[in-house]
Structures are given as structure tokens and as C-alpha cells.
Write a structure and sequence with these properties.
The chain has helices at 2-5, 86-89, 176-183, 208-219, 236-247, 335-348, 392-413; strands at 11-15, 19-21, 27-31, 38-46, 52-60, 67-68, 76-77, 92-93, 109-116, 122-131, 138-144, 147-153, 162-166, 187-191, 206-207, 229-233, 251-257, 268-270, 273-276, 287-288, 294-295, 321-327, 354-359, 376-379, 384-387. With 425 residues, it is of the alpha/beta class. An 8-stranded mixed beta sheet has the order 11-12-14-13-16-17-22-23, sandwiched between helices. Strands 2, 4, 5, 7, 8, 9 and 10 form a 7-stranded mixed beta sheet that branches. Strand 20 (287-288) and strand 21 form a beta hairpin. The longest helix has 22 residues, at 392-413.
């Protein structure tokens, strides 16, 4: 039925290929339209939870009846202006407060692009298969001692730099970032803390020993090329990454994205001894909004107040390199202030083992690029939806820039010679 409605001469082309990795741009071109014809382009996808995401933008064809998203501006719709990947990052869920979920890297992010007449009739369509894992990357679920996670190994003999991915503090496991890093040549272990497999549903304390075990597991892998490991984090796992770098050996490079400078929410133990108490929050300070989501940015207690200073992670002890990344419009918490405090503290200690980058107009959830921007979603700790902040276009641009920067940082600072060191505790 649909086929009969569609125009035989109009076609959508996805270049260089309709199949690509999730983090690769694709060029969208439409040909066979009438000269100067106004059409609407739509993108639609369903995530692993069955939530539908969609976007649309209106374009005017050139004199030859062509639309090229690399060149032509959107006149109206989900975004305006020249945005080659706008149809992807501007996709919104059809239900409020839903974040795009890709839980298994074995399922591609399938996006349907379609072209429609002003009256709505469909003229042509094409499907973009955006894969999260490159051919040849192996994915092995890990159940080793206390560790629960997934190990991704790039194709080939290696050796490869090794990275521990602490994706998020939410229960369960996310494999998207780990599988994409492995597709880019890194040996990556992503681990769950709770809410996955036989792990407890909830936890009341965190033990650094768990991450030490994960690092030892990574270092035993045949294809590891770095003498130490890298750690990549986001949000609450940011302070865990800082603690790993400050208290454990063999940590060469840490990426901290929109985290806190203090140990938050749960006390941190090592060898059954409390090493950092928890910085807590007061949700009475959260700001309600009309959408039903709250702004939690000002809910954390101040880690610099005298009674909270014991929660600060002693990053001045770390020997590895830090890449601090803060979104200036993070509404989850004040990432930029935490980053500035850490930079100032390291300088005060005469340390130069860090670099920092901040992104104006970006929100809390900085992810691999070209996924749908998420304005708000349910927050497990708050027990309700929160606003993540950010302006979609600026946020999307930040993700593209940061993804390249992360890979360069790890390639530069994960060395490839081996000499064991002792724990610093």
C-alpha cells in the first residue's frame, strides 16, 4: 500500500553507507524532487524499551530538485539551520521524561528517514543501521569473583590500551559506550555495581576493593598493551573514578564527566575500613518545574564547608592523568564548580597532571555522539524525573567534540611498557 503512494523518482541516499557505527556521521541526500519543492524530512526510531523517538525538519529543494543536509538549512521543525545530523540528535521521545535506552550493543540503532510532501504524503524512505559494535569486536559477559560486567576486545592481535568503563551509577549495566570504545581500538571492561544479574538490587555502601578486582582482571587479559588502565566515568561514577585514581595503583588516565569532587551519596570503604564518608543532599532544595521534573542542581551540600571536607576525594595523591569535563548548563549538579575546585586544588599542590574542558550550553548526560538529546528522565536517587539541562544543538556539538577528545586522551596517556607498583593505601 505504502509503496504505491511513494514517488518512483524521489530517493533518499545515505552516504557513505546506510550501515555505520553509532558514533559516525552520515550524509543525508534527497534527489528527484521538483525544482524548489518544499518537503519535510522525518526520522523515527524505537529504543530497546519500546519507546518511539522522532524528529522532523522542513527543507526547500535546490533548482535541481535536490536536498543535501550537509549544505541546506532546515526552515522549521525540530531544529533550524544547517545541521547535517540534526534529524538524529533532535529526535524526541513520544512520552515525557524518557531517555533513549540502548541496553544491548548487539541491536543496532535503526533509524528510518523519510521524505514527505507538504500535504503529508510519503515520497521516499531509507533505513540507517547505526551499529554499536564493529565487526570483529568480541563481547564476553564477565562473572569472575565479585565482578559482574562485560568485556569488549577489539579485533586483531593487539596489544590494546585498557579502559574500565564506569558508565553510570544507575542500577544495571550499560554497554553502549564500552562497545563503541572497543570498536575504536580499546580493550574495555564495563562493570555493574548493583541491580544486574545476581548483584543486590540496592546497596548502602561502596567498596573500592570491587574496582581493584576489576582492574586486576583487566590487567590479566592477553591483549592488554598498557601497563596501567584508563577509567571513564559519568555523574556519580565520576567521584568513584577519582577515588580509584587516588587510592589504587596502575591508574594512568581518568576521564571525569559531570561528576562531583567529593564522594557522594554512599560511604566508600577499602579493606573494610571507611576511607571517605558520603556528601549528602537535601531534596527540599530541589526546584520544581511545570513539566513535573525537578532541578536538583542546588540540592547537594557544599563539599567545601568545614563539616563536609572529609568527603573530598584526595586527588592530589593521584599519579595518573585527569581529563575533567564539565557541562556549563548541567542542571543535575554544579559540575563546573566541582571541576574548578579540583583544578584550583591540584594547582595549589603544584600538580600539572590534568587538563579540563567545559561546554557552554551542554547538559548533564554527555554521551557518544548522534544519539537523541535527553532533556529529562527519571532519577533513581531523587525518585522522580529531573531536568538534565543543556540546549540540544550545543549539547550535540559538545558530544562530537568530547568523543574525539576522550579517544585522543586515552591514546596519549595509556602507555605500553610494564612495571608493577604497590597500592598507595
Amino acid at each position: 500500500m505504502v509503496k504505491r503512494e511513494m514517488s518512483a523518482q524521489v530517493r533518499v541516499r545515505l552516504l557513505p553507507s546506510a550501515r555505520c557505527l553509532f558514533d559516525e556521521p552520515v550524509q543525508v541526500k534527497v534527489a528527484g524532487l521538483k525544482s524548489r519543492q518544499v518537503v519535510t524530512l522525518r526520522a523515527r526510531s524505537t529504543d530497546d524499551k519500546g519507546v518511539v523517538f522522532s524528529s522532523s525538519a522542513t527543507y526547500r529543494a535546490d533548482g535541481s530538485g535536490e536536498v543535501n543536509l550537509d549544505r541546506d538549512p532546515s526552515l522549521s521543525g525540530s531544529y533550524v539551520g544547517v545541521e547535517p545530523m540534526g534529524l538524529l540528535w533532535s529526535m524526541r521521545a513520544d512520552i515525557m521524561h524518557k531517555r533513549f535506552q540502548k541496553t544491548s550493543p548487539l541491536n543496532a540503532h535503526v533509524v528510518n528517514f523519510s521524505v514527505h510532501e507538504e500535504e503529508g504524503g510519503k515520497l521516499a524512505e531509507a533505513t540507517n543501521e547505526r551499529r554499536l559494535i564493529r565487526d570483529g569486536v568480541t563481547r564476553v559477559p564477565v562473572k569472575d569473583g565479585n565482578i559482574r560486567g562485560v568485556l569488549f576486545t577489539p579485533p586483531g592481535g593487539g596489544p590494546f590500551p585498557a579502559v574500565l568503563d564506569l558508565y553510570t551509577f544507575g542500577g544495571g549495566l550499560s554497554e553502549k559506550r564500552a562497545s563503541l570504545l572497543a570498536s575504536r581500538g580499546f580493550l574495555v571492561l564495563t562493570v555493574a555495581l548493583y541491580g544486574h544479574g545476581d548483584l543486590p538490587k540496592n546497596i548502602t555502601e561502596i567498596h573500592l576493593d570491587y574496582f581493584e578486582e576489576a582492574i586486576e582482571f583487566l590487567k590479566k587479559q592477553d591483549k592488554i598493551g598498557s601497563k596501567g588502565v584508563g577509567v571513564i566515568s559519568l555523574s556519580k561514577s565520576g567521584d568513584l573514578a577519582l577515588s580509584i585514581a587516588s587510592f589504587l595503583p596502575n591508574i594512568e588516565a581518568v576521564v571525569w564527566i559531570n561528576g562531583c569532587s567529593a564522594n557522594t551519596a554512599l560511604p566508600l570503604y577499602y579493606k573494610q575500613r571507611l576511607i571517605l564518608p558520603a556528601l549528602m543532599f537535601d531534596f527540599k532544595k530541589a526546584i520544581p518545574t511545570e513539566s513535573g521534573a525537578i532541578i536538583s542542581k542546588y540540592s547537594m551540600h557544599d563539599p567545601l564547608e568545614e563539616e563536609n571536607k572529609a568527603t573530598l576525594v584526595p586527588i592530589e595523591r593521584a599519579t595518573g592523568r585527569f581529563l575533567f569535563v564539565a557541562s556549563e548548563d548541567d542542571l543535575n549538579w554544579d559540575s563546573k564548580a566541582y571541576m574548578d575546585e579540583m583544578v584550583e586544588r591540584l594547582k595549589r599542590h603544584g600538580r600539572e597532571n590534568f587538563e579540563s574542558v567545559s561546554y557552554p550550553g551542554a547538559g548533564h548526560y554527555l554521551e557518544p555522539p548522534y544519539g537523541p538529546y535527553c532533556p529529562s528522565s527519571f532519577h533513581g536517587v531523587a525518585g522522580k524525573p529531573v531536568l538534565w539541562g543543556g540546549e540540544p544543538r550545543s549539547h550535540a556539538a559538545a558530544e562530537v567534540h568530547l568523543w574525539k577528545k576522550i579517544q585522543e586522551f586515552f591514546r596519549t596517556h595509556l602507555s605500553c611498557d610494564f612495571s608493577p607498583t604497590k597500592a598507595k593505601l
